[in-house]
Amino acid sequence: MLLQLVVNPQRVDILTFLDGCDFEKAFQRSNHAQISGLNVKFLSVEDYVLTKNASGRRKDLRDLEDLREALGTPLPGDKACLINLT
């Protein structure tokens, strides 16, 4: 199930499933931060990459390319995606 919380222009997706990685392992590796006084857990970069690669959608592969460019380095858990995204 996917739950979307929207307060324009922001959107938060809450997923009750993960493709590409084991939920229990991802939960153990999750990061957390306080946002507006709430403790929020979110995927580690490695698990984020695994789930994006597992979807195989062009949008998700573009997201990974954008993240690679922003960080200027290969991503943890990344596979070389030799696909033309244009």
Protein model, in words:
This protein is of the alpha+beta class. Helix content is 37%, strand content 26%. It is built from 3 helices and 4 strands. The strands form 2 sheets. Strands 1-2 form a two-stranded antiparallel sheet. Strands 3-4 form a two-stranded antiparallel ribbon. The N and C termini lie far apart (30 Å).
Which features characterize this protein?
single chain; 86 residues; alpha+beta; two-stranded antiparallel ribbon; two-stranded antiparallel sheet; 3 helices; 4 strands; 37% helix; globular; disordered C terminus
List the helices and strands and how they pair.
Blueprint: E1 2-7, E2 10-15, H1 23-29, E3 31-35, E4 38-42, H2 45-55, H3 58-71
Antiparallel strand pairs: 1-2, 3-4
- Count the domains: 1
What is the radius of gyration? 14 Å
The strands making up the biggest β-sheet line up spatially as: 1-2
Largest sheet: 2 strands, antiparallel
What general form does the structure show?
globular
Low-confidence stretches: 81-86
- SSE string, helices as H and strands as E: EEHEEHH
Number of strands: 4
Concise account of the structure shown:
The protein has 86 residues and is an alpha+beta fold. It has three helices and four strands.
